[in-house]
Amino acid sequence: MNWSDVLQEPTLQDIPFKIEMNEWGKIVLSPASNKHGMLQAEIVGFLREHRKPGKIITECSIDTPKGVKVADVAWASIDFFRKYGFDTPYLEAPEICVEIISPSNSTQEMQEKTTLYLSKGAKEVWICDENGLLVVYSYQGLLEDSNFFPNFPRKIEF
């Protein structure tokens, strides 16, 4: 199964799970919680409030060497959109990919996703834990602040 098959499968349209694919083309489901949704909405709100020229994407699918991964939130520059438009999944990661940790996520999984997004061109990966604490990673490792959004919040209040 490939990503376009997943998108067209009627039985997968209204399930309360985040869908990704692993490197063997198998579907991986992650349950969604209301807390996760609120954190996602607050991050989108921050990005919109501190708008830079670009687009905010929720549930952004990115083709990686380990299958299609879906960033909870992404921010992409105008140049990125000129190049990739509405391709699904993106063959390159937008400049910022955000993952919100769910109870089902392991530390190893988040480290792997961070590495995958950076290897596909992301400049920053923001990781938000269940308490709203945010950290930013780049190829240099853990960053003190976002290079794109200097007013980056250390904690999402909700």
Structure notes:
The protein is an alpha+beta fold. The chain has 4 helices and 8 strands, in the order αββαββαβαβββ. The chain has a single domain (33-143), classed as tt1808, chain A. It has helices at 3-8, 34-49, 78-84, 107-119, and strands at residues 17-21, 27-31, 54-64, 67-77, 96-100, 124-128, 134-138, 141-143. The strands form 2 sheets. A 6-stranded mixed sheet has the order 3-4-5-6-7-8. Strands 1-2 form a two-stranded antiparallel ribbon. Strand 1 (17-21) and strand 2 form a beta hairpin. The longest helix is centred in the first third of the chain and has 16 residues, at 34-49. The model has no long low-confidence stretch (mean pLDDT 91).
Summarize the structure.
Residues 25-137 form the Putative restriction endonuclease domain. By secondary structure, this protein is an alpha+beta fold.
Number of domains: 1
What does the largest sheet look like?
A: 6 strands, mixed
| Sheet/helix structural class | alpha+beta
Question: Which class in CATH terms?
Answer: Alpha Beta
What's the CATH H-level homologous superfamily?
tt1808, chain A
Q: Which outline best applies?
A: globular
Distance between the termini: 38 Å
E-strand count: 8
The proportion of residues forming helix, as a percent range, comes to 25-40%
Biggest sheet, spatial arrangement of strands: 3-4-5-6-7-8
Percentage of β-strand residues: 25-35%
CATH architecture: Alpha-Beta Complex
Q: How many DSSP H or I helices?
A: 4
Q: What Rg do the Cα atoms give?
A: 15 Å
* Whole-number mean pLDDT: 91
Please trace the helix and strand order, writing H or E for each element: HEEHEEHEHEEE
What's the CATH topology name?
A: tt1808, chain A
| Uncertain residue segments | none
Organism: Candidatus Contendobacter odensis Run_B_J11
Protein name: Putative restriction endonuclease domain-containing protein
Pfam families: Uma2
Domain Putative restriction endonuclease: 25-137
